[in-house]
Recover the amino acids of this structure.
């Protein structure tokens, strides 16, 4: 028999944990908390995202990926009601929109202030 496994939290390495948490808090409206000594957000489904400083030099990923550059390790896909409005809002909060996109009618890839790519996806 396999034990039931649940996802407790997602930890994001970053250079400035407080600032990155504030970006995602403003983007999502999720609850700001401190957990395990780190800035955190708690989503409405109780998913916890920890923003953790590094004990190494943080090198932001590049997107789209390039050979011999820091690769992304993960990214979020956020479902949104109005894709165009949500993209404008994310950019106003500090995200950037890479020139290369794949299917802008369904999703837009953006990059957070520390270089992590994420997608806003129309519902």
């Amino acid at each position: 028999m396999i034990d039931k496994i649940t996802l407790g939290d997602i930890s994001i390495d970053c250079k400035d944990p407080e600032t990155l948490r504030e970006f995602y808090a403003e983007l999502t409206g999720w609850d700001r908390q401190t957990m395990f000594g780190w800035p955190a957000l708690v989503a409405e489904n109780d998913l916890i995202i920890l923003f953790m400083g590094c004990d190494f030099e943080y090198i932001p990923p590049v997107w789209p990926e390039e050979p011999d550059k820091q690769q992304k390790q993960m990214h979020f896909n956020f479902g949104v009601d109005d894709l165009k409005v949500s993209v404008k809002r994310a950019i106003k909060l500090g995200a950037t929109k890479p020139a290369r996109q794949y299917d802008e009618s369904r999703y837009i890839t953006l990059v957070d202030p520390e270089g992590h790519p994420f997608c806003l996806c129309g519902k």
Remarks:
- The mean pLDDT is 93.
- The chain is about 20% helix and 30% strand.
- The CA atoms of residues 89 and 115 lie 17 Å apart.
